[in-house]
């Protein structure tokens, strides 16, 4: 039977000073989208507390203070922050994909969280290779996050930003038969050419994977841009680059994209179109040639400590009287 899903892609500004205030914006957007009938709500890349825009325009020697601020405001998983999102998902019965800066002790990671409609956190994945300036900010993820998960809206996979330029990362999700692919970009970065590149990339993945693509990019106000750098020549790099869009398996926009300002983009997804597309071209099925070309995917988490034997808990020795 055909299934229909109403998707919402959120393009709003974070609060560059406060995780709590950004999270409040997330919860308000979930309420609004759910009130408009959304089954799936997608937020931009590392939206909580905010994308590290400073790393794109400031030299490393000037990044110490904003980088430490990002550490202070970053999200641990699980935490009270993730609990609040999970409760809102369960309250409305919606699936949410949220980008966060995840803090794991002394490191930060670009993480994508997929919450099911009952509030269960189905997946926490980390961007496998931070891009260019981002390598000063985040550590690397591993193959354990290249998973497609079963949600109330269907089989959902996710990648962040330029991970979409890694064809094998995309193929790892395609082999797991994703029906809805979630993409997240920072927005307000690089300029108009970035928006053009995002559109091409999203439409191509929809065609190649034979799935729907729901992409969310962020937005910065002029005051926020000015707060990142006082240099007007550098502020140019913090404008444009917005392409919040929803793409069908046939590579078409399901609704006109959002390329500036704040808003929530909605579209109805008829999942029967996935089969319609794959009837003609299934990249991991009848159109594949696995005896010639195949993918090796290591899904094991990477550990920095390997025990040669089971660890014995330390038992303190009581002091004698």
UniProtKB/TrEMBL annotation:
Residues 5-271 form the CN hydrolase domain. PANTHER family: CN HYDROLASE DOMAIN-CONTAINING PROTEIN, NITRILASE. GO terms for molecular function: nitrilase activity. Gene3D superfamilies: Carbon-nitrogen hydrolase. SUPFAM superfamilies: Carbon-nitrogen hydrolase (SSF56317). This is Aliphatic nitrilase. InterPro entries: C-N_Hydrolase, C-N_Hydrolase_sf, Nitrilase, Nitrilase/CN_hydratase_CS, Nitrilases_CHs. Pfam families: CN_hydrolase. PROSITE patterns: CN_HYDROLASE, NITRIL_CHT_2, PIPLC_X_DOMAIN. It comes from Palleronia salina. Belongs to the carbon-nitrogen hydrolase superfamily. Nitrilase family.
